[in-house]
Structure prediction request, 341 residues.
Amino acid sequence: MYDKYILKGNDYEIGVKAGKIFKKPINEEIGIYVKMLEDEKTSAITDKIILTMEKELPRCLQEIYGRADGAAVDPKAMVLFYSPEVYTKVDGCTTAVFKKDDRVLFCHNEDDIGCNHENRNLMKLDYGDFWLVGMGDYHKLHGSNFGYNSKGLVFSCNYLFHDEVNLDFLSRYIVSRDVVESGSIEECLAKLNKHKPASAFSYNVMDIKANEAVNVENDLDNMYVTRIEGRFARSNHFLNKENAIASENSRYRYRYANERLAKVSDDAKLQDLVDVLSYENEEYVQSILMDPLKYPDKKDNTVTVANFAFDSLTKEIHVRDYLDHSECRLDYDDFDGREYE
Prediction:
């Protein structure tokens, strides 16, 4: 099972602790980004990202600098490390939501490349007056996977296939890091509207106080908001844009997730949504769940590394670690991780 950590402090201090935890995997890859900065154009783009962050999201920049110091690497290379649009990084993920009366079931498969127990964990960031729980990731910031916060918001993020990037805007990882600290869906939408992303992504947000859920598709110029009522599932392509590009696997995951979700009974339980996202076809490309133990050769393709499931009525949280097929249950208000000093 993924290790569970509690990190306390301010933005920089929490960043330092995360950098120390992920020091080995960060150092194994950071040389690529140090080398990229030798290119004048890439170096200038990264400088511009830093200037924009200093103006718009200085706290996030401090966290990244903390990660750099904790891992003992170059801070500028670390900013580039968390700017996937500059070097084209593709992610996966499938999400299913079921809303009926006063209950919302929220389920998310996290798909990614090159995952192991050294570079992924479960992590609580505790600032004293606010906390945030999510998947700890050496190559992403909190908000780019799945999780929940002390203000009653539950979230997950989906990469969206796109054909346009604007490096004058902030990375989707950086925008997501700010959005995940919201206290309401309205605040979340305001932040997404304020910080234009350098590439497209989708955000699924549930407010357990208001018993509401939305999906937001963000591209460079527009924001498409879907208020979720009943059953909703999505993968990694736009649902609200005509002629949207998509991988074959994303289209299959979207099709099968919706077909299976439609068959779920009106008195659905959390396990029913987990089962929806556990569909395995004989073919990798037609599967929702791409089991990393079944596809160890898919090192350059996304596999499913975790499932996150939440029930708004009971506040029940299940996390399945597909790297070893273990599972844990989390208490929403009492994360049982080890404090990292």
